[in-house]
Design goal:
Layout lengths: L1 E7 L5 E8 L6 E3 L24 E2 L5 E7 L12 E7 L12 E9 L2 H6 L3 E9 L11 E6 L4 E5 L4 H12 L6 E5 L12 H16 L3 E4 L2 H7 L6 E9 L5 E13 L5 H10 L10 E9 L13 H19 L3 H8 L19 H12 L1 H7 L5 E12 L5 H5 L2 E6 L4 E4 L9 H13 L6 E3 L18 H20 L4 H8 L3 E5 L8 E2 L4 E2 L4 E13 L6 E11 L6 H20 L5 E2 L2 E2 L18 E6 L21 H11 L11 H7 L2
Parallel strand pairs: 1-12, 10-11, 14-15, 18-19, 24-27
Antiparallel strand pairs: 1-5, 2-4, 2-6, 3-5, 7-15, 8-13, 9-10, 9-12, 13-14, 16-23, 17-18, 17-20, 21-22, 23-24, 25-26
Helix pairs in contact: 2-3, 5-6, 6-15, 11-12, 14-15
Length: 669
Amino acid sequence: MLFGATIRATIPRGEIVNTHIDLSPDYIVADYRDIPGKNYVALLDPDQPCLAEREVRHVAEPVLLVAHADRRALFGIDEQVRFDYRELAPNYDPETSETCFKQIAIDKGDIERGFRDAEVVVDGEYRTSHQEQLYIETNGVIAVPGDGQITVYGSLQCPYYVHKALVVLTGFTPDRVRVIQTETGGGFGGKEEYPSMLACHAAILAIKTGKPVKMIYDRVEDLLATTKRHPAIVRHRTGLTRDGRITAMAVDVLMDGGAYATLSAVVLSRGVIHAAGPYRCDHIRIRGRAMMTHTPPNGAFRGFGAPQTQFAVEAHMDRVAEALGIDPVRLREVNALRPGDSTATGQKLGKDASALPVLREAVKRSGFRRKRREWKGTNRGIGLSLFFHGSGFTGAGEVKLASKASLELTRSGARILVASTEIGQGTTTMLAQIVADALELPFAAIEVQQPDTDVVPDSGPTVASRTCMIVGKLLERCARDMRRKLGALTPAQYFTRHGAFTVTKQYEPPAGLAWDDQRYSGDAYGSYAWGCNVVEIEVDPVTFEVTPTHVTAVAEIGKAIHPLMAEGQIQGGTAQGLGYALLEEVVMRDGRMANAQLTNYIIPTPMDAPPIEVAMLERPYAHGPYGAKGVGEMPIDGPAPAVINALRHCGFDIRLIPATPERLMRARR
């Protein structure tokens, strides 16, 4: 086996004029000319090369690959390669960028009429920064060449994404490309699209050398080169009557996509759909843009655009309440979406629209109003946020995916065949529970096949809070069909008499869903999960350090298939959201992450996390397995605005996160 390393550009923008390599013959070097197929990472737009040919757009741009039999021989290898450039002026500011990856417009009602009906208008601008996924296991793959074929083993979320990228890169037919997901130490979206890049790099070296190649990033390279949460600038203009009813919402969303498009278009999509928050309003105008800058590309991260825009709308709602002299709970009660109301895209909500129930439960459990009165004027603060999150792909996305799931009878029970990956969130347990219940078999009778594109069908990526609701429902249908076919026989009896059989189901959208992708209107998601967070904090009057002391997290997720794991998802997402609000700051200098190590990119540890009290309300969704919706992403949408609203209660006007002590010192009112 050989080990591989990546040689990257050292400037944010320019053209490579010459390359100088000072390496002995026992090193194998590959560049773009060694790519047998097409030189781009196949995802949405074919704009990102696997290896730069001439143009450089960011400081971590891959240019060369080097392989050696001794991994130690690759340490410091970049010092033995030098590029001559024709440097060009970089742009790090999405507001002045001239390249737009995606624009989206949402219009509901008549915005001008809405503002004419308003008695009060409140404006606000809110900003969010990069956030690093910081999975425990860094990106890593092994590529094994064969006779006109390639197999890749890797730490990844989406085997069929990697498969597609390798087919394009190699020019091989799909049946000659195999991707196997190995046990994966966390993802949070960071292993959605980026593993395709690394898999392509390892495959290039493996094909050139004819030997297996292992490539594993160290922490610094992983931080410098991989995707992060999109920074965003969100501007609100809201019209209201004096008693707090919203008459108009105008929202402008600007996201920094980095140097290449990656998933920016769909991150922006979810962001703008959630930008008006869980609020009823007849007149809404939302404009969204994702812009190019000369920084490493941004991509998927838990929440996928919704944390940025819901931070803005919830921070704005508390400022609106203050401007009107209204209690922030009352403002939300007046405007919260109810069954029968329509969202910003015009989607009519069903009986499981739960904004008011989660709000009232969180306020009651936390003693919000009492603490807000008692703590006024002290260094203690309490804030809340109300939020929702669509489960599954946006609009017609699930129809286009056409996901499949299979269930195979075994002698002792059944084997699940799906591409959904276990990345620490409990997927295998949850899917096995669904199948066991539907088959009326013990949990131990269900096997789950490790995702392998030669073995399992494409059930879609493990993203977008879709695995339980979409894939779980497909498997429930498979299991019910299998149960009917078994009749009175046990799996062992049927297997002995007739042998094995497999049931496969393909996604079918619920009746009545309609989406217009051109107008961005209609049913954006099959269902929504709903949440309300109440965060209690203390601010050190000398250092301005913020300590969260308690969080009340109320969630409505349909039906909790595994209540303990669902609670863990809510607690984990809440802690991650607290880090987003207070600690996690990517310092960019000249287009490069300046704090690419764990000594100064800080995330909350279990010692930092406050007590997180979780309450789950159940309103089953008819088209989810046993009524379940998605739970994975929703918990990260609420903590940041609740923290900022608690800081406002303490007298700090914060509109940019993370709310570091330095920013608090400047924001004291």
